[in-house]
Amino acid sequence: MNTYIAVYKATHRVIQIEEYSCFTWQQESGDIDLEMLSGKIKRERSLHFFNLTSPKDYPISIDDLSITIEKTDVFRG
User: Fold this and answer.
1) Which of 2, 17, 64, 68 has the most CB atoms around it within 10 Å of its CB?
2) What's the CA dihedral at 51, 55, 58, 64 to 10 degrees?
């Protein structure tokens, strides 16, 4: 099992805020599935980020989030 790190940008369809961050995860060695990674980032990070930064009465849907993976690498931390 290897640990990887990704730098990403998350945007919302309506809210004019961008989240720039990094995300670590573990997987068996091999090709990185960017679609799976984007889904993990949406569920585990960005949904919470946009819930914290949006007005209390504004519902955040995971379908309104867009993830751009800028770079991935093996994590050597």
Assistant:
1) 64
2) -50
Range of the domain at 63: 2-74
How many C-beta atoms lie closer than 10 Å to residue 36's C-beta? Answer: 11
Say how far apart CA 8 and CA 52 lie, in whole Å.
18
User: Which pLDDT tens digit goes with each residue over 18-77?
Assistant: 999 999 999 987 899 999 999 999 999 999 999 999 888 889 999 999 999 999 999 997
- Distance, in Å, from the CA atom of 62 to the CA atom of 48, rounded to the nearest integer, reads 10
Residue 45, pLDDT score? 97
HSE-up (13 A, CA, CB side) for residue 31: 4
